[in-house]
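Support reply, case 0932

Customer input (verbatim):
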Amino acid sequence: MKLIHLTYVFAFAVVLAACGKEKDKDFKDNCGGKAPGGAVNIMSINQDINLGQSVVQQIESNPTEYPILDSASNPVAYGHIYRMRDNILNSGKVYYKNEFAWRIRIIRDDNTLNAFCTPGGYIYVYTGLIKYLDNETQLAGVLGHEIAHADRRHSAGQMLKQYGLSVLIDIFTNGNATQIAQIGAQLLGLSFSRSDETEADDYSVRYLYGTEYDPQGAKYFFQKISGGQRVPQFLSTHPNPDNRVANIEETWKCLGSGGNSGTFDERYQQFKNSLP
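Our regenerated output:
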């Protein structure tokens, strides 16, 4: 029975690859840029979205640990972060721009320097990180990095490594909502590999290149945190910002050393002032 499932999934992956050839051409560049591919294509986009929705359900059913700032009651703050998100999505370089949700929520916790994005494009940013940074370009660099984790389907890749292909196929073909929820719970504590983190840094540069922001926004973020005493939670296993700065600079130079140079300090201060 599993052999039938495996054959079906591989056939489905081949169809997806054939349908996406024209789109893939638009995402290639001379600096190693390309459309997402490889083993993650064995998991469908809908499965990524389902995993993300499972994580969202667990986060938003636990307001004690994740006190989310209500978007309707804080329209000014959300207007700022929506603008930043939309700038990145409209760069033309986010592969799954139209497939994923790219829903963004602010978590009210001034003591936590963190941001993350689930599979399927559900983005969470802590007020602690927003208030710690100096300008929009720094935060845009972080948002680009987190969007890249979802857009490059890094969680799917990590799940394949952890469970193996046959187990995941069985869960997604025969499994129930409880099993998928269990996988979603594990995603909350997932640590990405160094190669995934490097790729997310690289694509943050690509995403910002076509926006009003300096494409090296992530570099300025790393420079900011390297001089501080508080290491953000999502960097706890990758504490080498100097190496990441060098990699970001290399990608930017390869792409042509261009782009804009806006940091929007005053506008960012207005954003911070709009937070409780």
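We compared this against your earlier run and they match. Two observations from our side: The chain has 13 helices and three strands. Residues 2-7+28-33+44-273 form one domain. Please reopen the case if you see a mismatch on your end.
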